[in-house]
Specification:
Layout (H helix, E strand, L loop, with lengths): L9 H15 L15 H16 L1 H11 L11 H14 L5 H13 L8 H13 L1 H4 L10 H11 L1 H13 L3 E5 L4 H7 L2 E2 L4 E4 L17 E3 L6 H4 L8 E5 L5 H8 L3 E6 L2 H14 L4 E4 L11 E7 L14 H4 L2 H20 L1 E11 L8 H10 L3 E3 L20 E3 L15 E8 L2
Parallel strand pairs: 5-6, 5-8, 6-7, 8-9
Antiparallel strand pairs: 1-3, 1-4, 2-3, 9-12, 10-12, 11-12
Length: 433
C-alpha cells in the first residue's frame, strides 16, 4: 500500500505493478478502474504502462535475458512486474522520462517485503538498460509474437499479413460500436465513421466509454466489427426463436434482439450474466436469460436458430488483449478444441430440423475453425454446411473462402479504416430436415 509520504507517481506505479503481476500469473487483463485509481490522469498513465509492457512482452523478454546475468530471482515478489513496467517506460515511452522510471521502480520494490532486498539489483539493471535503450529500441518486430504462433500464422496468412499483425499489436484496437438505430447525428457526435452494417468506429476519444454520447441512453454497445458478423449471418424470419450460447457479456444477444428474434441468452457464469442483464437493461432489450452449462443444456422446445460463440484461445483478440499471445499453448488450444466439439454436439440436439446453427470463435487457429467444420461434418451427420456468400459481407473482400467459411484477421481493413479488426472464424450450418 502507498503511504502518505510516498513520492508523486508511486501510487499508480504500485497499482500498475499489481495488475501486471496478476496478468503475468495468468489472469485476463482488464484496465484499472476509477475505484482503483480515482485520478483520471493517473489511471490513464498506469494503464498505458501496463498495456505497453504487455504489447512489448516478447521484446522485454529479450531485454531481461540480456540484463539479468543469473536470470529472474526466485521468490522475488513484484520484482518482475516492476521491472517490465520500467523497461517499457525507458525504451518505448521515452516521453515519460528516464529518471522517474528508475526512481519509482526502486521505491516500488522497497514497498514490497518480498522484493525489497532486490532494490540494488533493480537500480543496477535499469541503469544498464538506460545505457542500452537505443539498441533495445531497434529490436526486431518478430520478437513481438511467440515463435510457435508466428510460424503457424505465416503459413496460414502469409508473411505480409503477420507483419501487419505486429503493427496492430503495437497500435492496439480502435473502439467499434454497434448502433441500436441508424442515427447520423449520433455518429457525428461520436466522431465515428461507418464501417459495415450498423457498426461504426471511433478512432480516438478523450473520455471513458461510458461518458461518450448515447451510452446512458442505450443507443449503442461496444463490439468489434468482426464480432458483429456472426449474428448477421443467421438470416431467419422475425419472431424466430434463437438460442445464444455462451452469450455474456451480450453483444450478440443485443444484435439478435435488435433483429426481432425471440432470444434466449445462456451462459454458465453468473457474474458475466449479471453484466449481460445490465447491458440489456441499458439497451432496452429483454431476452430470456438462462444460467446453465451449454454442453448439457436440454431445452423443452427446440430452437429455430442457434448462435454458438464458443470458448476459444481468443488469439484473434490480441490487439485488445495482448496477454493471450503468451498465455496460450498447444495443450491449452487442444483442450478448447475438445470443449468446442462438446458444445457443437449439444447445440445440434437443441436445434429444430431445418434450423440454422452459427459456429464462431475469436481465434486465428485453424484447429478451432476450419478443422472444426470438417470434424462436425464427419461426426455429426445431421449437420450440413450452409455456405456464406461473399455478397453477404460487403466491404470485406477475401473474408469468405471458396467453401463459404468466414475468416477475418487483424490485417484486414473494414471499409476505409486502417484500424484492422479482430481475428474471427464463422461457419453456418443447417440441421437436415
Amino acid at each position: 500500500m502507498a503511504q502518505r509520504s510516498d513520492p508523486a507517481g508511486l501510487k499508480l506505479r504500485l497499482a500498475a505493478a499489481q495488475r501486471l503481476r496478476a496478468v503475468l500469473g495468468g489472469e485476463h487483463f482488464s484496465p484499472l478502474s476509477a475505484a482503483e485509481l480515482p485520478d483520471g490522469r493517473d489511471r490513464a498513465l498506469a494503464n498505458r504502462l501496463i498495456t505497453t509492457a504487455l504489447r512489448r512482452h516478447g521484446q522485454i523478454d529479450f531485454m531481461m535475458r540480456d540484463l539479468l546475468d543469473k536470470g529472474m530471482p526466485a521468490k522475488s515478489g513484484s520484482f518482475e512486474a516492476v521491472l517490465r513496467l520500467s523497461l517499457a517506460q525507458l525504451v518505448f515511452l521515452p516521453d515519460l522520462g528516464a529518471h522517474s522510471a528508475l526512481f519509482l521502480a526502486v521505491e516500488a520494490i522497497k514497498r514490497d517485503p518480498k522484493a525489497r532486498h532486490l532494490s540494488g539489483l533493480m537500480n543496477a539493471v535499469l541503469r544498464k538498460a538506460q545505457g542500452n535503450s537505443a539498441r533495445y529500441g531497434l529490436l526486431e518486430d518478430r520478437m513481438l509474437l511467440p515463435p510457435e504462433l508466428s510460424n503457424g500464422w505465416r503459413a496460414a496468412y502469409g508473411a505480409e499479413a503477420v507483419q501487419h499483425f505486429t503493427d496492430a499489436l503495437v497500435a492496439g484496437a480502435p473502439l467499434d460500436l454497434t448502433l441500436r438505430d441508424d442515427d447520423a447525428e449520433l455518429i457525428e457526435a461520436l466522431g465515428a465513421e461507418r464501417l459495415s452494417g450498423d457498426t461504426v468506429r471511433v478512432e480516438s476519444r478523450d473520455r471513458p466509454v461510458d461518458a461518450l454520447p448515447g451510452y446512458a441512453e442505450g443507443r449503442w454497445w461496444v463490439q468489434d466489427v468482426a464480432s458483429a458478423i456472426p449474428a448477421r449471418l443467421l438470416r431467419l424470419p422475425e419472431e424466430s426463436t434463437v438460442l445464444d450460447l455462451c452469450a455474456a457479456p451480450g453483444g450478440k444477444t443485443a444484435q439478435l434482439s435488435k433483429a426481432g428474434y425471440k432470444v434466449t441468452a445462456l451462459d454458465s457464469d453468473a457474474v458475466r450474466l449479471e453484466r449481460l442483464r445490465s447491458n440489456m437493461a441499458r439497451l432496452g432489450y429483454e431476452p430470456d436469460v438462462v444460467e446453465a452449462d451449454a454442453a448439457h443444456y436440454a431445452p423443452q422446445t427446440l430452437f429455430d436458430g442457434i448462435l454458438l460463440d464458443a470458448p476459444c484461445s481468443a488469439t484473434g483478440t490480441f490487439r485488445r488483449h495482448p496477454e493471450v499471445l503468451w498465455h496460450r499453448s498447444a495443450n491449452d488450444i487442444a483442450g478448447r478444441v475438445r470443449l468446442q466439439r462438446s458444445l457443437l454436439s449439444n447445440a445440434l440436439r437443441s436445434l429444430k430440423p431445418g434450423g440454422t446453427l452459427i459456429y464462431c470463435v475469436c481465434s486465428l487457429e485453424a484447429a478451432e475453425g476450419e478443422d472444426q467444420v470438417q470434424w462436425a461434418l464427419d461426426a455429426l451427420p445431421e449437420l450440413e454446411l450452409s455456405p456464406v456468400r461473399a455478397d453477404e459481407l460487403p466491404g470485406l473482400p477475401g473474408a469468405v473462402s471458396a467453401k463459404g467459411l468466414v475468416r477475418t484477421h487483424p490485417a484486414m481493413r473494414p471499409g476505409e479504416s486502417d484500424g484492422g479488426m479482430d481475428g474471427f472464424f464463422v461457419a453456418r450450418f443447417t440441421r437436415k430436415g
